[in-house]
Amino acid sequence: MRPTAARLNGMPGRMFFSFFFLLWNSCANFELTAKSFCPWWGDTSMQKQRGVVVYTVSPFRQRGSKGIIKGWLFNGYRRLAAQVPYWIVPFAIGYGTYTWAKRRDAWQNSKAGHIALGDHH
Fold it and tell me: What is the pTM of this model?
């Protein structure tokens, strides 16, 4: 049986990142210091900590993709439809400005635009 995710988190006072969870002492492991209120194992110089609770979920109980398709068919559509008023107005303004500028540029560079503006090549 392999160790749980909580076992692989390292010792208190340090964040322990491992690229290979099964190879505990491999050369790919590195440590970063982090602020923590828990002393190193066996250190009695600090006051006892109380009220520190850590909850973890077993990797065998996690179901990351449960209901992903069914959830997005209904709830995702509802959530996206609720956001439409916030992005459709800026999109319409931007698209309208873009099409106006393209038409105006094409007209100004045409023969009729040069004659109307009084510019000649």
Answer: 0.40
Phi, psi of 32, deg, nearest 5: -125, 135
Domain ranges of the chain: 7-42+53-117
- Cβ atoms within 10 Å of 52's Cβ, excluding its own: 8
| Contacts with 46 (C-beta within 8 Å, 6 or more apart), sequence order | 39
pLDDT in tens, 18-77: 443 444 444 444 444 444 555 677 777 777 667 778 888 777 777 777 777 877 888 888
The answer to whether the Cα torsion of 26, 30, 35, 40 is positive or negative is positive
The structure tokens listed for 121 are 């090549």
